[in-house]
Write the structure tokens for this entry.
Amino acid sequence: MTVEPRQADAADVRAADSIDLQGNFTLAFGTPIATYPWPDSDGLNQDLKQFVLRKEQETKGITRSNVGSWHSESDLFKTDADCIRKLAQRIQQMTAALTRAVMVNPEAGAKTINYQLDGWANVTRHGGYNTVHNHPNCLWSGTYYVASGEADEGPVQNGRLELLDPRAGINMIYIKGTIMEGRYLIEPLPGLMVMFPSWLSHFVHPFFGNGERISIAFNILPRPPAPPDFGA
């Protein structure tokens, strides 16, 4: 038996309009990704930029997934600086909001989690990038964009963060323009905060352009609750 290829005709489209999938549709095994543009960020970003560039001059930095770019130590949030405290507060608020958003029953579940916040600064100039990696033993990971630099004209992925689809074989066949495309690119706009599960592999495409592309990355490490204090 041969099945001829066909496209939906007008009758199919009209019939589809009558099918109500509300309550009969789910995105099973979806990956939660938050991309939140924080309002009123210009002043904070200016302070963070000055802080990070000064720290870059003072310390050698370390190498992790970064290639041709500067990566600070991972103790950034232990710094006694007003701009770092303000950013930490934003991350704490996003952590609570995102954790609540993925709960099956937010009203019945725990309202808080115990965690440790670790973070580091990244400064990327012309030619710098980050290789594919993830963040083991963490709950959420994310980044906050302080400055985007001036990207050269060229491929849209210039300097962008790409989150890799964890579903095996998703790129075998897909419908363009849907959430099944298998690629998720994020433009590094100042003030944007991105958070995703720490197991999700990701990388940063090489940045070609002028100036500095500055971001602050972070991990949310879950910690067990403190034992009760029964006194002496």
Observations:
- Residues 172 and 182 are 9 Å apart (CA to CA).
- The two ends are 82 Å apart (CA to CA).
